[in-house]
Recover the amino acids of this structure.
């Protein structure tokens, strides 16, 4: 168990701004207005349909005497006809779904559609009643420090309200490809999943999705999916029952100062293309591994997550403008947006390679050309192209950048390497250009990524 040292308030001295020197607001009117639209959700699941290890801590399961399980979560009404937003993990694998409204009425519900990538589900109450719906706000307008309310069903106790502030925005907790969470210190516990996060106008600005906890209970760190991200998902679920996302066939990684320098870019802007899928829209538009994407459809690209969402939320069949840093200058290309396939195959150039070499080079690496023995030793594909890293020099820039023994280097400075002579040629070119870093394209567990490696200084 981790312990945190607390400092007595009597020992802390600070001044409070004049505008903040007043009593805290009452949220009673806001709760009275919004709580009728928040529901409790219980589901009956067969044991073989549940995978406890994969369920976020924000959901609670109660084992019953019969061979089924009851899952408790939260949701909120967004339409008078009884459409309800919740988390996918709340209703995933459900045999039966029961919704309990704030006035203790019970309704059966059916699944309209789900999206595992954002952990969002849309369900609908089976009934003729006109339901009170919540309004959806603008999650981009919120600021760190703003007050929010969270309403949910913690531990199956029923409707509960907690208040807090926005602690951070755009959090990546590595739960999915489009992580962009709002972080709050409002109390969110098991069973609160799917409940709304509200601004002081009573508008939904997020959906409570996960908590950070070492005990299973609230520790002051909760996460909500921003409503602006969910609007796209809900529109697709309501119209089609699933989410169709745009796709152009790229793998990308963050840009760094070293990578930017190796490509003669003034500063590390945009994201780096690390691989392009064969026959994809990106390949047809002339985009290549090693290009840097600066803007998409007129919006600047600051990180890989934002770029992925921009592409995913672009209408299929539309043509989008992409600004690239390519061949040491800015260029514009136009790419057709395709439908994201279930599985994406990444380009892997396969060419024969040769013998073996000893000793570290100016990159701080000991490299070996692929041979039958090397293929067996490192369990490579029979037609693997490139050079295998057999050792990394201690304290070298390569070691600092995470280059490991056993990875395969397929390109240097965006040019394919077939043998040791290629490496020596490209290193000599870098030395002739003021010893600039060399850009390596590395395959690790079949996943490509770039690293810009500084040359070792002559001693």
């Amino acid at each position: 168990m981790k312990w945190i040292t607390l400092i007595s308030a009597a020992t802390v001295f600070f001044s409070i701004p004049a505008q903040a020197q007043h009593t805290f607001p009452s949220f009673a009117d806001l709760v009275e207005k919004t709580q009728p639209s928040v529901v409790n959700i219980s589901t009956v699941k067969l044991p073989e349909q549940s995978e406890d290890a994969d369920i976020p801590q924000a959901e609670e399961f109660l084992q019953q005497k019969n061979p089924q399980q009851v899952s408790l979560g939260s949701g909120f009404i967004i339409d008078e006809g009884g459409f309800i937003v919740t988390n996918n993990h709340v209703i995933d694998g459900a045999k039966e779904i029961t919704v309990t409204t704030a006035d203790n009425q019970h309704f059966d519900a059916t699944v309209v559609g789900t999206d595992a990538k954002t952990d969002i589900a849309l369900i609908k109450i089976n009934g003729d009643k006109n339901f009170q719906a919540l309004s959806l706000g603008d999650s981009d307008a919120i600021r760190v420090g703003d007050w929010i309310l969270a309403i949910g069903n913690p531990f199956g106790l029923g409707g509960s309200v907690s208040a807090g502030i926005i602690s951070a925005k755009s959090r990546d907790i590595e739960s999915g490809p489009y992580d962009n969470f709002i972080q709050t210190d409002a109390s969110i516990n098991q069973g609160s999943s799917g409940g709304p996060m509200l601004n002081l106008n009573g508008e939904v600005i997020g959906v409570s999705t996960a908590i950070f906890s070492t005990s299973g209970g609230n520790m002051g760190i909760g996460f909500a999916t921003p409503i602006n991200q969910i609007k796209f998902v809900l529109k697709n679920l309501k119209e089609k029952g699933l989410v169709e996302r745009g796709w152009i066939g790229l793998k990308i990684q963050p840009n760094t100062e070293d990578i930017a320098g190796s490509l003669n870019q003034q500063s590390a802007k945009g994201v780096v293309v690390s691989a392009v899928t064969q026959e994809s829209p990106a390949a047809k538009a002339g985009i290549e591994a090693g290009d840097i994407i600066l803007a998409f459809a007129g919006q600047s690209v600051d990180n890989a997550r934002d770029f992925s969402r921009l592409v995913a939320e672009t209408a299929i069949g539309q043509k989008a403008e992409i600004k690239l840093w390519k061949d040491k200058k800015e260029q514009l290309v136009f790419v057709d947006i395709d439908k994201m396939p279930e599985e994406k195959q990444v380009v892997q150039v396969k060419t024969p390679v040769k013998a073996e070499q000893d000793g570290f080079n100016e990159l701080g690496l000991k490299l070996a050309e692929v041979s039958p023995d090397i293929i067996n030793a490192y369990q490579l594909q029979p037609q693997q192209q490139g050079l295998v890293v057999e050792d990394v020099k201690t304290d070298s820039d390569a070691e600092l950048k995470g280059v490991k023994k056993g990875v395969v280097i397929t390109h240097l400075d965006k040019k394919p390497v077939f043998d040791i002579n290629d490496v020596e040629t490209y290193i000599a070119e870098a030395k002739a250009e003021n010893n600039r870093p060399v850009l390596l394209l590395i395959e690790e567990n079949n996943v490509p990524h770039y690293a810009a490696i500084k040359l070792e200084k002559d001693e």
